[in-house]
UniProtKB/TrEMBL annotation:
Pfam families: HTH_1 (PF00126), LysR_substrate (PF03466). SUPFAM superfamilies: Periplasmic binding protein-like II, Winged helix' DNA-binding domain. Belongs to the LysR transcriptional regulatory family. CDD domains: PBP2_LTTR_aromatics_like. Residues 7-64 form the HTH lysR-type domain. Keywords: DNA-binding, Transcription, Transcription regulation. This is LysR family transcriptional regulator. InterPro entries: LysR_HTH_N, LysR_subst-bd, WH-like_DNA-bd_sf, WH_DNA-bd_sf. PROSITE patterns: HTH_LYSR (PS50931).
Amino acid sequence: METGPHMELRHLQYFAVLGETLHFGRAAERLHISQPPLSRQIALLEEELGVVLLDRTRRSVKLSAAGERFLQDAKDILASVERAKRNALTASLGHSGSLSVGFMFAAAYSVVPPITRAYTSEFPGVDVHLTESIPRLLMQDIRESNTDVAIMYPPSELEGLETRTVFSEPLVVALPAEHPLARRTGTLDAAQLRGESFLISPRVAAPYIYDAIVSHCKRCGFTPKIRLETNYQQTIVNLVGQGIGVALVHRSMKTARPINVKFRTLANPPYVDVNVTWNGLNHNPCIQTFVALSEKLGAELKPGG
């Protein structure tokens, strides 16, 4: 069974130009085709629609009532097609879409706020969803693609993952305000904390920071006596303020301004890195725009936070 001609985008383009010029010769010139093919295509378009779009005389071409209505609809369709092209290109470049970002709590006091502000400002077409979690669960979410990108410590297992360091800062000592060491001035050596009760994140939740703290203490001649383990740096600092023990925490935790806590600078402190990490099989284009901006902003925040 044979079918008649079908309307194509080029037919709408031809008619839109002709509807604007109302002159076959000028329309053909603008479209870079000769006049006879243009006339045939318009005639075929009218045949398919079953209406007269143009009132033709030897001296003039005018739009019929149907032609005026169809011209507006044709322009709307063509504009929608162009918008769809732009949207597809924008999405492919990571300038629109959605992005789920997980972050560890400690980063909320350093890079998460400036990165989020900068990214949402530069890419307003991306819907960013932030979720706080612990490093172990962030790793699981990245591997299962429940989260697109994570702001966290460097991952311990890199298989299948991509990661970039975007920030680094030293650890400092958090002491109860009434602790004798809190009243001294100058740099504090970690060896002076021998015998103190430490508050720390559990290794199962955050092996990177746990190992950094324990290793530094051992280099200073002792193994820290751990009184309490809890997942979040803010909780650790608050408990320090309650006199439960001492802790080595990110320097950026000073901005939390906890009550009854004094921060002291460490001699030769260990530095902790904050990375952006994602699954190499996750092809969400927004990941790359987020990573690039995070690296750029992180470089501006260095050295040492």
